[in-house]
Amino acid sequence: MVKKIFWDKGHGGADPGACGNGLRESDLTHAIVEYAMGYMNANYSGFEQRTSRAGDQTVPLGQRDDLADNWGADIFISVHINAGGGTGFESYVYNGGVDAQTLALQKVLNDEILAAMRQFGNIQAHGGAAARQDNFSVLRETNMPAVLTENLFIDSNDAQYLKNTAFLQAVGEAHARAAAKHLGLPAQSPKQFFFYTGGYSGEGLAKIHSYLMGKGLGFTPSRGREGHLFFTVGPFQETAASADVEGFLKENGYWYSKQQG
Ligand SMILES: [Zn+2]
How far is the CA of 112 from the centre of ligand 1 (A)? Predict the structure, then answer.
């Protein structure tokens, strides 16, 4: 049975959420959820995931729970950044009575996220208690275990962390690990793939060939029907090295495809 994860990116569009230190909550929640979803795709199987907004759209509060309820999500995770001059991390479940599954999801999120944050500094639970309860509409109106995370304060010294993309990535990945643990999702080995490109003559052919040789990349040449040379380059996983190859091909406007290996 495929598990369904709903990621709610707090705020967006006409509502930027909290602002401070040159940061907007809506941008940070977008970044964290994108990192979470990317990490899910790279590391787990047996799930589907959706988010309340792809980019910077305005999504009314009342629509967010409906999107998750109508889809039949198994868990709902709403990502926010705190404000009000405090410091630290905390998370919320509905204060009107929740089941053990909801509390378990909150606990695994708190554990994973605080551990990830502490790689960057001495980050504590806000007010000494990470697990909190309140009457937020996305928590009250959703039909599945729902947790809202408040990932540090945008208007305090916490902003030094929120300005660091490596920190946002770590926090996003921690959200994903928690979701996967809670749902018992199987880990998948990282996908391998090859770049397939070529079909050029003259300068294009020479430039691709010298790039591959210069980087010391393994490749297999082959001849197309017209006699043009093609290259199968790899194997790769999604790493800085594969991003470098893809960047080279894109920047120069060379045709290519990624093929599963
Ligand atoms: Zn918020």
Answer: 20
Q: For residue 15, how far is its CA from the centre of ligand 1 (angstroms)? A: 10
Which one-letter DSSP state was computed for residue 157?
A: T
- 132-149 pLDDT tens trace: 999 999 999 999 999 999
For the chain, the maximum distance between any two Cα atoms, rounded to a whole number of angstroms, is 71
- Specify whether the CB–CB gap between 226 and 170 falls below 8 A: no
For the record, the structure tokens of 102 come out as 């909801």
Q: Which residue has the tokens 């598990």?
A: 3
Min mean pLDDT across 13-17, 33-37, 171-175, 187-191 is at 187-191
**Active site (catalytic) residues:** 150
Question: What is the distance in A from the centroid of ligand 1 to the CA of 167?
Answer: 18
Report how far residue 211's alpha carbon sits from residue 219's, in angstroms, rounded to the nearest whole number.
11
Tens digit of each residue's pLDDT (9 = 90 or more) over 108-136: 999 999 999 999 999 999 999 999 999 99
Whole-number Å distance, alpha carbon 22 to ligand 1 midpoint, is 16
Q: Which of 127, 126, 182, 121 is nearest to 149 (CA)?
A: 126
Sheet with 229-236, strands from edge to edge, namely 219-223, 229-236, 193-200, 256-260
Ligand 1 centroid to residue 11 C-alpha, Å: 6
CA gyration radius, the chain: 22
Query: From the CB of residue 28, how many other CB atoms can be counted at a distance below 10 Å?
Result: 26
List, as ranges, residues with CB under 5 A of the ion ligand 1: 10, 17, 80
Q: What is the CATH number of domain 193-260?
A: 3.30.70.2030
Q: What is the mean pLDDT of the chain?
A: 95
The domain ranges of the chain are 3-183, 193-260
pTM metric for this prediction: 0.76
For 3-183, CATH number?
3.40.630.40
